[in-house]
Here is the input.
Amino acid sequence: MNYMKAWRSKERALNELRGNARESYNLIPSYLYVLQKTNLGTIVDIEKGEDDSLLFLFMALNASLRGWAKCKPIIFVDGTFLKSAYGGTLLSASAQDAGGKIFPLAFCIADSENNKSWEWFFTKLREAYGVREDQCIISDRHESIIKATNKVFIEITHGYCMFHLLSNLKTTYKKHAKEYSVPFFAAATAYTEKKFEYLMKELDKFDKRIRPYLQKNWIS
Here is the structure.
């Protein structure tokens, strides 16, 4: 079987399993209308281009809106690639409920992770959920997230995911990279200043540049 025949076979199988991508996108307005009718209180919004093409789509279910008050005031945001025929990116916001489980808050379909898409998503997120006392946002160090947070959520703290920070740390200071994990995660989850300082000194032993690097990069 040559490449093109294999590719067409795969596309046909995917269409039978998931439906045609073009037809699915055309059904989005109807789907959102029915979603709001059957899930009263759900918030949705669509922004289209001049040619009537989809630019952004926002969705926050009523169950998420009601449950947010019972979650920790920490919102985690990230983006992931969509692998459909039209590509794009799925932006998401989630929290942690009282049982320590992931609690989805909102989703957004956008063309990519860029300044405009993150700013639009954060604007809709703020309109839907507002701002709580001691609220903060956690993300990776994507430049567009940093810019959008500083513009839309200027009054709250923006911190960075410790897994991404550790990955960046290992890439920047490679000599003892395999030994950073234990003291780093222990310091990131320390509940007292004394314990935190002790663990940071353990990291200092590997490289004196680690502490200034982390102090510069863990909060925007």
User: Anything to note?
Assistant: The mean pLDDT is 91. The beta strands are 43-48, 54-60, 74-81, 89-96, 102-110, 136-139, 157-160. The chain has ten helices and seven strands. The chain has two domains: 42-160, 161-220.
